[in-house]
Amino acid sequence: MSRKVRVGIIGCGAIAEHLHGPDYVCSPDAELVAVCDAVKSKAVALADRLAPDAQVFSDYKEMLKKADVEAVSVCLPNHLHASVSIAVLKAGCNVLVEKPMAASLAEAKKMLDAAEKADRLLLVNQSQRLFPAHVKAKEVMDSGIMGKVLHITAMFGHAGPEYWSPTGKWFFKKKEARFGAMADLGVHKADLLRYLTGKEVAEVGAFSERLEKTRSTVEDNFVSALKFTDGTVGTLAASWTVKGAEANYTVFHCTNGTLQICLFPDRPLVAYLVNPECQITFELPPPPTNTAGGWGLDVGGAFCRAVKGEEKPFCSGYEGMKSLEVILAAEKAALTGRTVKIKH
Ligand SMILES: NC(=O)c1ccc[n+]([C@@H]2O[C@H](COP(=O)([O-])OP(=O)(O)OC[C@H]3O[C@@H](n4cnc5c(N)ncnc54)[C@H](O)[C@@H]3O)[C@@H](O)[C@H]2O)c1
To answer: I need a labelling partner for 74 at 20 to 30 A (CA). Which of 9, 24, 270, 344 fits?
Structure first.
């Protein structure tokens, strides 16, 4: 049996509870040996639920000194991603940092430099790349059956972070979150569009508004118009005021037809082709086993296999930075009322 990578988690809030922790304890490639949260009771609760033998810390620097870990998930509020990831890399560990990977391109570049200097991996948890419908959609897009992508619609919206992380007040504070719905949710779709099409965004126009979360200092709604380097156009929208049913879909209108991804919950991946006219409802790969109450995306396992050199990183630091660049351009476009070009 292949060896298990010794893993630690810094930040034991919602995403550690729902994704990182369960993924690690269910993966044959990982062993969760340390958990850390500034609120120690949260680290204790995560260890109690998932890994009772794990060491528990309230100071990540102490964890890096005392725990025998070689890979670390950084699951902290956005403003801490860069500094803590760099400290983890300097301590000789590989990093899986949450999205958005940093608060600025300068920070993202420093993270990439630190990874190169330490000769360690830096992965960004653009977890939508591993959703079963997106894994299959990548195969479909790469197969060429859809032809050339002409027009894209992508939207991610839910009722807001207060329904996701009841203690995550930082999501609403510009100093700690840096962005609102635009980066919290929009960065997922910016990354997914780049990943599924292999195209880069060349120019962005955008609007952002705070419509309901009036006590927040970040936007709760955002819509952008994208032009890709080959002229493909599209819209990317994100919202924290979507009620009743979450919106989390992507549609590609292509020369040979339309690919709908997660537009309808009962049919997550459907291609409508024109020549010959037909409809294909794709079967999705079964989700990896997850018995620990998580999403079952196997993000943690994929990270550990990349650390062992058995698999390509599912989203490298560079990829995370290119997706962040789209969101930063969209923010600038919304603030200035002008379109913003991205150089490649
Ligand atoms: N990939 C995804 O699908 C996805 C989904 C949700 C959230 N996220 C991202 O995950 C990150 C965390 O989000 P969350 O929802 O878990 O937030 P959260 O507020 O629920 O958890 C953050 C945790 O970090 C702890 N913390 C804060 N400062 C600390 C420090 N200095 N040292 C140690 N612990 C500290 C807090 O006590 C808290 O428990 C964010 O960047 C968010 O954007 C990603």
So the answer is: 344
Give the domain extent around 121. 5-127+303-316
Q: For the whole prediction, is pTM greater than 0.90?
A: yes
For ligand 1, residues with CB inside 6 Å are 10-16, 36-39, 42, 60, 75-78, 80, 98-99, 125, 127, 164-165, 167-168, 170, 184
Residues 6+ apart with CB under 8 A from 149: 141, 197, 199, 232, 252, 253, 254
For the segment 307-325, the average pLDDT, to the nearest whole number, is 98
CB neighbours (10 Å) of residue 119? Answer: 9
Quick one: pLDDT at residue 1?
A: 60
Q: What is the pLDDT of residue 289?
A: 67
**Does one domain contain both 104 and 137?**
no
Condensed to tens digits (0 to 9), the pLDDT of residues 243-284 reads 999 999 999 999 999 999 999 989 999 999 999 999 999 999
| pLDDT tens readout for residues 142-152 | 999 999 999 99
Alpha carbon nearest to ligand 1 atom 25, residue: 11
Q: Do 79 and 163 share a domain, yes or no?
A: no
